Amino acid sequence: MLTKSRLIQLVSMLSLLIGLFIWRTIDLSEIETDKSKADEQGLELDETICDLSQPCVFNSILGNFVLSVDEGKIVPEHWYNLTLKSNAKNWQVMSAKIVGKTMFMGQIPIKFSPITKKGGELQSHAKSMIGVCTEDRMLWRLKMIIEIEGKAIDVHYDFLIVK
Question: Where are the bilayer-spanning segments (predicted)?
Fold first, then answer.
C-alpha cells in the first residue's frame, strides 16, 4: 500500500537521482569541452612525453633505463625495433605492453629479448607495431614491469604518434 510517507520517500529519491544525472551530464560536457580545446591546440611534447627521435630516459632509484627506437620514429602499422638499455645490474623485463592514453586501442603485448651486454651496458630488444586510429595525434604509453635484483618496479614511457 502506498502511504503518504512512502510517496514522499519515492519522490525525494527520484529527485535525487534526476539531480545526480543532470550534474554528471553537465560535468562530463565540461570535460568534453576541455578535451576538444586540447585537440584543437594539439598535444605538445613536454618533459613527460618522449620524443622517440632521440633516446628517452626513465630514472629510478634502482637505475636508469634508456629507451630508443632503431628507426627514430614509429609509424602506425609498420614494424619498429625498441632497445632498452640500463646501467642497473641483474635486471629483466617481466612484462611489457603498449596502451593508448588518448584513445582506446586495447593492449599491445611486447616481448623483450633476454638481456645482453654491449659496450658496458645491459640491453634488451623488442619488435612491435601499433595500430592506426581515427585521430591524427595519438598518445601512447609503454608500460613495463622490470625486476632488478628481485625487486619489481613500474617503468613507463609516453610517446606521441602523428599520422
Answer: 7-26
